[in-house]
């Protein structure tokens, strides 16, 4: 009987100590979390460097200053002929279009300003 009573007392004392320690640990963990957290949402030193910059407005540029400042807007394109592996673009200043079949071997007069009748041009010249 004494052995059972002793086991019960030890069990109850360990239970009470573990409950007390658990409640103390919860408070300690919460306090440590509050002390060590970075508070990024409210810290003024961690604000984005772009928060104070106003949006860039293209309409404010003058025409003369706009040409020098907008050089980055130019886009360079590669022709379809240059992109194809087996085809070299037409010779420069030949007057022939890149869309001309075998423009290196083409003969006859070149009329770069007259267009044929097609769906796009609607037979207009």
From TrEMBL:
Q: Per the UniProt entry, what is one GO biological process? A: calcium-mediated signaling
List cellular component terms (GO): extracellular region; plasmodesma
**Leader sequence residues:** 1-25
GO molecular-function term, one example from the UniProt record:
hormone activity
Keyword check for Magnesium: no
Q: Which Pfam families match?
A: RALF
Main localisation:
secreted
Compartments reported by the entry: Secreted
Q: Which UniProt keywords apply?
A: Disulfide bond, Hormone, Secreted, Signal
InterPro entries registered for this protein in UniProt: RALF
Q: Does the record bear Metal-binding in its keywords?
A: no
User: What family classification does the UniProt entry report for this protein?
Assistant: Belongs to the plant rapid alkalinization factor (RALF) family.
Identify this protein by name.
Answer: Rapid ALkalinization Factor
């Amino acid at each position: 009987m004494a052995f059972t009573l002793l086991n019960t007392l030890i069990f109850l004392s360990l239970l009470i100590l573990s409950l007390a320690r658990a409640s103390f640990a919860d408070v300690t963990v919460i306090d440590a979390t509050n002390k060590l957290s970075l508070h990024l949402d409210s810290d003024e030193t961690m604000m984005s460097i772009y928060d104070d910059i106003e949006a860039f407005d293209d309409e404010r540029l003058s025409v003369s200053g706009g040409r020098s400042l907008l050089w980055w807007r130019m886009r360079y394109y590669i022709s379809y002929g240059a992109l194809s592996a087996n085809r070299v673009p037409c010779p420069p200043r030949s007057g022939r279009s890149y869309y001309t079949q075998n423009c290196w071997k083409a003969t006859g007069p070149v009329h770069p300003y007259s267009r044929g009748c097609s769906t796009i041009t609607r037979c207009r010249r």
